[in-house]
Amino acid sequence: MPIQSEAALEKGLIEALQKMSYEYVHIEEETNLKANFKKQLEIHNKKALAEIGREHLTDSEFDKVLIHLEGGTRFEKAKKLRDLYPLETEDGQRVWLQFLNKKNWCQNEFQVSNQITIEGRKKCRYDVTILINGLPLVQIELKRRGIELKQAYNQIQRYHKTSFHGLFDYIQIFVISNGVNTRYFANNPNQGFKFTFNWTDKSNNPFNELSLFAADFLDKCTLGKMISKYVVMHEGDKSLMVLRPYQYYAVEEILDKVQNTNRNGYIWHTTGAGKTLTSFKTAQLISELDGIDKVMFVVDRHDLDTQTQSEYDAFEPGAVDNTSDTSELIHRLQSDSKIIITTIQKLNTAVTRPWYSSKLQQIKDSRIVMIFDECHRSHFGDSHRNIVKFFNNLQIFGFTGTPIFKENSVDGHTTKGIFGECLHKYLIKDAIADENVLGFLVEYYHGNTEVNNGHQSRMREIAQFILNNYNKSTYDGEFDALFAVQSVPMLVQYYKIFKELNPKIRIGAIFTYASNDSQDDEITGISSGSFVSERVAGADDMEDIIKDYNEMYGTSFSLQNFRAYYDDVNLRLKKKKPDMLSLDLCLVVGMFLTGFDSKKLNTLYIDKNLEYHGLLQAFSRTNRVLNERKRFGKIVCFRDLKANVDASIKLFSNGGEEGIIREPYETVKKEYVNLTKDFLSHYPDSRVVDYLQSEDDKRKFILAFRDIIRKHAEIQIYEDFNEEDPDFPMDEQLYMDFRSKYLDIHDTFVDSKTVQDNAQSDYNGDAEPSLDDIDFCLELLHSDIINVAYILSLIADLNPNAEDYPEKRQEILDTMIKDAELRSKTQLIDGFILQTVDNDKEGFMRNKKADGSIDLEERLNQYIRQEKGRAIERIAEEEEIPIEVINKFLSEYDYVQKEQTEIIQDALKGKKLGLVARRRTLNRIVDRLRNLIRTFSWD
What we know:
Blueprint: H1 6-19, E1 23-24, H2 30-44, H3 46-50, H4 59-70, H5 74-82, E2 84-88, E3 94-98, E4 110-119, E5 123-132, E6 135-142, H6 149-162, E7 173-177, E8 182-186, H7 210-217, H8 220-229, E9 231-234, E10 239-242, H9 245-260, E11 265-269, H10 275-287, E12 294-299, H11 302-315, E13 321-322, H12 326-334, E14 339-343, H13 344-352, H14 354-357, E15 368-372, H15 382-390, E16 394-400, H16 415-419, E17 422-426, H17 428-433, E18 440-444, H18 456-473, E19 480-485, H19 488-500, E20 507-510, H20 539-553, H21 562-574, E21 585-588, E22 601-607, H22 612-619, E23 633-637, H23 642-652, H24 665-682, H25 695-715, H26 732-752, H27 788-796, H28 805-818, H29 826-836, H30 841-846, H31 857-879, H32 883-896, H33 902-908, H34 915-936
Parallel strand pairs: 1-4, 6-7, 11-16, 11-17, 12-14, 12-15, 13-14, 15-16, 18-23, 19-21, 19-22, 20-21, 22-23
Antiparallel strand pairs: 2-3, 4-5, 5-6, 7-8, 9-10
C-alpha cells in the first residue's frame, strides 16, 4: 500500500474542514489575501457598518485599516486583533471595527485556504491556512507520513526567518502534522519543539491522528474559543502562550461549576504542569462573569504570595491586587479590586479578629470565589473552617499535584472531604507521557547507610560523595542541586563539614527555625514554611551562613532582611540572570521542597525521611522540562526510601507507575551496548564516514549516531557509569572520533546550505527526506558552562613556562572542538593565545594578579574586533565588493537576526555576470559571511 502523500493529506484536511462548515477560498498571493480580508471584514462588521448607512469600506478606508494593522511587533499585533478599531470614514463618521468576536467566539467568519504564496526574503507557499474574519490566524504545516514531525516545526521556524510578514504576523496558533502525529503551539518563535502540545479529550486520551485532531480542535467553536479565551499574552516576555488541553479542561470545569451550580471542587494536576497559568486564566475568566464580586487566590506561605503575584503580573500587570498585610487585605476587599492574592493566615486574621471582621460585614453576602493553591497543605485546620464559615455566598476550588487521601492523611481529613469532587485529573504519568514534565532517576547511595544524625564520619563521607559527584550529576554545573536533610542541627553540621572540605562549587543554605528543631509534618517530611525568628535558638547559625553568603556574592543580607536573602537564593538557584553568579548547591530542611520552580535544577540529594505527597513534591523540584540534555530529574537517596518511593508513586499515579521512575543502570547499559554494537557493525571505524558519498548515506549515519548521542547523554549521569567499562563496544575515544565526524557533516551541510534557492519556492511537496530534514540535536553536544568566561579562565590558568604548557594549551582547544557551538571559534582562540601568551610570555605572567588571575576579557574583545575587521577586508577584497556593503549586511543581521541577502544581490547587479555565475557568487559570499557571523558572534 503506497504511503499517503503530503498532497493527499492536505486535500483530506481541507475536505474535512469544508464538511465542518468552513468556507474554502482560493488565495494565490498577498493581493488576493488583502482583497479577501476586506470582504470578510465587511461581512463580520455588517451590523456596525449598517448603523452608519454603509455596506462596504472605500479603498482609502481599508488602507487605513491595513496601516493600523501593519505597525508593531507580533505581540502588539495580537493585542490589536482583540481590540476594536475606531475607523474615521471619508464622510466624517466613526465606526468601531471588530477583528475578532471574543465574547461570542462561534460568531466569526471561518475560511480555509491552501498554498498561499507569500514573497518575503524567499518565496514560500504555505500548506493550509485557516482565516478568521479574513485574517490568517491558524497556520497548518503538513509532512507526509513517515517524516519526523519536528521537520514541520523546523519548516515553520524557517518561515519566521524568511517570509512571515504583514497579515501573517497575526497567526495565533500553529498546527503541525504528519498524519499520525499532530501537535499545536502558540506563535512564539524558537521556543523549542518541546513546547508543542498534542490535543486530548477530557480524560487525557490524545487525538494524534490529524482527522481526530481536526474534528475536535479545529471545530469552529472550539478553535474560536481557544483563540478568544485561551491564548495568553505574556506581558513579561512579550510573547504568546496557549493553554494545553488539560489546562483548558480544568478551567472549563470550574467555569461550569461557577456559572451553573454552587458546588465546590478541586483540580488534581501534577506538580510542574503549569498550575500558575491555569489558575491565572481561571481567576481572570471567573472575574469577568456577571454576578461575581471577588475572586481570591489563597496561598499558605508569604513567599508563595509574592511569587504568585509576580507570576500573575508577568501575564497581565495590574490584573491582580496583592495584600502586604491584613489591613491591606481589608482595604482590597472593600474596594473595587476584582482579583486578590493573599495568604490563608491573613485571611483567617481578617475573619476572626473583631477589629477586622467588623469591617467586612457588608461583603459577607457578596458572591466570592476562592481558589486555594496547593490545597494538600494548610486547609484542614481551623483557619480554613473559619474562612468558609464567615462568607455566606462562597464557592471554593483547590489546585494540587498531590491530594490528601486516606493513605496519606494525618487526621482522617481528605482533599475530597474539604473541597468536594475532583473536577479534572492530569497525573504525573500523563505529564511524562506528554513530555510536559520529566521522569525521575532514583539512585541509592552504596556507602554508609547507617542513619544517625550525629554520626560525623557518615556525614563527612556523604558530603565528600556529593562534591565528587556534583559535576557528573549537573553536567559540570550547567544545572544545580538541592540537598534536603532531616533537621536544622543536621543542616548546620553538614554545612560546616562542606566548609572544611574546601569545595570548588558555591554552597549555601537556608532554613526556617521554630521553637523546636524539626518543623516537619510527621507523615510527609515537609516543613510548614514559617520564617526565621531572631529570638530562637539556631538564629546564630543562620546568621553565620548568611555572612558566608555575603562574602561569596558581595551582598549585605542579615536576619533583619531575611526575605530579601530568601529571594536572592531563589534567584541564584534559577540561573535566570547571566550576569549573576549562581548558587550550585543549596542545603535545605523544608524550604524549596515545595513551590520552588526552576528548570535549571536537576538534582536532589536526600538525607531525610520523606513519604507520600512530601516525597513526590520534593522529587518534583527536579523534573521541569528544559532541553535535550535534561532527560530526567536525578534523585540520590542516602537513606533507604525505596518502599516510600514506590508507595508515593503508586498513590499519585493511580496505579500507572510505568515510566515515572527511570530504568536501573544495568538495563540502560544493556541498551547502550546493543545500540553501539549494531552501529559498529555498519561503521566499524570513524574513517569509514569519510567515504560516505551520497546525501542519503550521510543521512543514515547521522540518524544512527544521533541515537548513540542520546543514549550516551542518558547513561553518563548514572552513578555506576564508567567510561572505561570494558563491556562497552565503543570506548570514549572512538565515541569522540565519531562525534567529530558527525559535527563535520553538520558544519559542511550548514556551509553548503546557502541561498541557492532564494528565488525559488520553499514548497517541497513530497520530496525525499534529506539532511535538511534532520534535527542534529546539537544542544546535547553543547554545554552552557563552556562559554567565554570559562575559556578565559582556562587561559588565565596557563603558565607558558611550565613543562605541561603545550598539553594544557591543547586541552583548551580540544574543549572547544568537542563543543558543537564553539568549535567554529577554535582557530580564533588559538590565535588569541598565540598573541597573548606565546608571543608575550613575560607580559602575560607579569600581568597576573596576586591570586593568579588575569583580566583577559577586554584583550579578547579587542582581538575579536581586530580579527573581524581583517576578515571583512579580506572578503571585500577577494570578492571585489565594497566594504560598506558587507558592513551593512552584518549590521542588518545584528539588528533583525535575519540574513538580508538582497543587500549582496544589489551589489552584484553592477557586475557583468550571467545568471548562473551571479547565483554562484551570491552563494559563495553569503556562505563566507555566514561563517564570519558564526565565528565572531560570541557573547
